[in-house]
Amino acid sequence: MNIDIVILWVDGSDPVWLEEKSKYAPPAATDSNSVNRYRDWGLLPYWFRCIEKHAPWVRKVHFVTWGHVPAFLNLDAPKLHLVKHTDFIPAEYLPTFSSHAIEMNIHRIPDLSEHFIYFNDDMFLLRPMEPEQFFRNGLPRTYGREVPWTFTGEVGIWAHAAANDLGVINAHFPKKDAIRHHGSKFYNKCYGWKNNLRTLALNTLFPDHFTGFQNLHAPAAYRRQTFEEVWAAEPALLDSTCRDKFRQASNVNQWVCLWWQVAGGNFEPSIVDNVVDSVTADNLEKMCSIIEGQTHDFVCINDPDGDVDFEALSVRLKKAFETILPEKSSFEV
After folding, report:
1. Which of 4, 27, 159, 218 is paired with 47 by a 20 to 30 Å CA distance?
2. In Å, what is the CA distance from 84 to each residue of 40, 91, 94?
3. How far is CA 157 from CA 54, 83, 201, 294, in A?
């Protein structure tokens, strides 16, 4: 089985890109166009080192950008496929500065394998993993138990997308049918008895609709076919999402495809060993300890809101990655 990786990246300091973005951006910064949404921490070389060292079985890395190319990147690397937005996103949706629009079109990338793993550029593979940890019996592996969605305080764009995603799932997958046909995937020993008991309670109290799924914010295993199915089922909603230049509360995101696989039973149960946190002065050493100790399969390094000593934090994170990945990969010049 061929397995590819898709990763999205933007150079938030590119003056040409900034000029283009300014033509469409609202006058005030929002949850969709603030500086931290596009800031580059200089950690991308380590992302490639992680993949080459810990997942050497990957066939291709499809590196998706607006058009800019990192200075370190070896364009002749055998496994690299540099993909510009214009290479796969329909012209009527361009230019776009919305990750939602980009995500919902990644199945159109030329030469993308049927089985692929989607990464954000802040998700790092810290330990060696085998293909079977992402796909089994030709199906994506993921965390399939039900987890209710709750909202407190100000609701961000990502939470609106999750709610919209869940609405799509409940419109197309009667929960009772899903449980009847694929119950062993929603109740599975890998989740642990407490989580299975919680799922039982949710199915008893809310038998007709799913109340939510786990927000993993981790690399996700997909089949191209899934994206095609969602487009066929919800063409107007996905078209509307892709026409927005920046993320909007009315959008869906790639989780709709992840949960489509789950609700349809087209997945194999798995526990995802991932740590997600924003990097601040208070938790910097904790995050670096996770990296240096390689204590989890994945770490997701979120860019924090507000003012931080960006340069100092970045230098310390690079030092942590150098500890475990000191040698350049074939993706670097």
Report:
1. 159
2. 18, 12, 11
3. 33, 26, 29, 31
In a domain, 257, yes or no: yes
In a domain, 329, yes or no: no
For residue range 133-168, list pLDDT tens digits in order.
Answer: 999 999 999 999 899 988 877 788 889 999 999 999
36 band by pLDDT with thresholds 50, 70 and 90: very low
179: how many CB neighbours lie within 10 A of its CB?
Answer: 18
In a domain? residue 55: yes
pLDDT at 30 > cutoff 70: no
Does 330 map to a domain?
no
Angstrom CA distances, 148 to 168, 198, 210, 221, 262, stand at 16, 10, 8, 22, 15
pLDDT tier for residue 38 given thresholds of 50, 70 and 90: low
The torsion angles phi and psi of 312, rounded to 5 degrees, stand at -65, -45
Which CATH number is 85's domain given?
A: 3.90.550
Q: 217 lies in which domain range?
A: 3-324
User: What would the pLDDT profile of 191-237 be if each residue is shown by its tens digit?
Assistant: 999 999 999 999 999 999 999 998 788 999 999 999 999 999 999 99
Number of domains in the chain: 1
Coil, strand, or helix at residue 265?
coil
